[in-house]
Amino acid sequence: MGVSTSSPEKEPEKSGIAVVTVDFPPVNALPVDGWFALADAVRAAGRDPQVRCVVLAAQGRGFNAGVDIKEIQTRGPSALAGANRGCFEAFAAVYECAVPVVAAVQGFCLGGGIGLVGNADVIVASEDATFGLPELDRGALGAATHLSRLVPQHLMRALYYTSRTVTAAELHAHGSVWRVVPREELRAAALELAGEIAAKDGELLRLAKAAINGIDPVDVRRSYRFEQGFTYEANAVGVGDRVRGTFGKEKKDKAERDEREGAQA
Predict the structure, then answer these.
(1) Is the torsion defined by CA of 247, 253, 259, 261 positive or negative?
(2) Could you tell me the sign of the dihedral formed by the alpha carbons of 216, 218, 221, 224, in that order?
(3) What pLDDT is recorded for position 236?
(4) Is 126 strand, coil or helix?
(5) Residue 48 — φ and ψ, nearest 5°?
(6) Which segments in the chain show pLDDT lower than 70?
């Protein structure tokens, strides 16, 4: 469990690829420490002179379920502040990684997951992958900056306000997902693309990454930090805690109703 870095080959210098894998069962909802560990791993991979491409992957049913809401409910404001800082660092690490980052996405990609893939250079996704921001259902705000990099402006707003998700196929149609493959082929597809990128000259790739980031129309760090200010405001006035307090309650209430109905039958 945690964040690990590996190479697809026994001799990493030959592949030029580093695979950073996230594994926080059961749903990859990352605790505060997990976000910082992910940021450190991505930055370290980018600093390695032998690495020419990073693949960001995850174990389990889904790629990422965002922050660990239960940790915030338990620890309160300190965990909220930690999660915000951790997400900021992880998203920035992906964006600022010295070499291209390919995100390999399976299952659900929610909340903080959007921040990661929105800042990645390329996305490869499995056919069952879904993407969304349930922030308004979780008492928080943020990552509209990154969702805006995946879909057109008006669709971003509709998805944000409704907390709905979109499929990998829909994002492929918008041009933000490079390729959609069966789940069992996801790793191979991501490594194939990473291998094609890593075959380029490493020094030139790093210059290309810096150049492309330099012409981005939106400063993603500043934009996301601006959004985070409203998360703090929501928490300060109590609405954040009020909405977060409903997290998991619907499932619990349904289970209790089903139990009562079963007893009456």
Answers:
(1) negative
(2) negative
(3) 86
(4) strand
(5) -70, 120
(6) 11-13, 248-265
Q: Are 135 and 65 in contact (CB under 8 A)?
A: no
Distance separating alpha carbons of residues 73 and 246, to the nearest angstrom: 11
The pLDDT value recorded for residue 255 is: 44
Residues in contact with 135: Cβ distance below 8 Å, sequence separation at least 6, in sequence order: 111, 141, 142, 143, 160, 163
DSSP annotation string for 25-55: TTTT-B-HHHHHHHHHHHHHHHH-TT-SEEE
Residue 253, number of CB atoms within 10 A of its CB: 11
**Furthest CA-CA distance within the chain:** 71
Instruction: From 245, 205, 249, select the one nearest 17 (Cα to Cα).
Output: 205
Q: Name 137's Cβ contacts closer than 8 Å, sequence gap at least 6.
A: 163, 243, 247
C-alpha 117/C-alpha 190 separation (Å) is 13
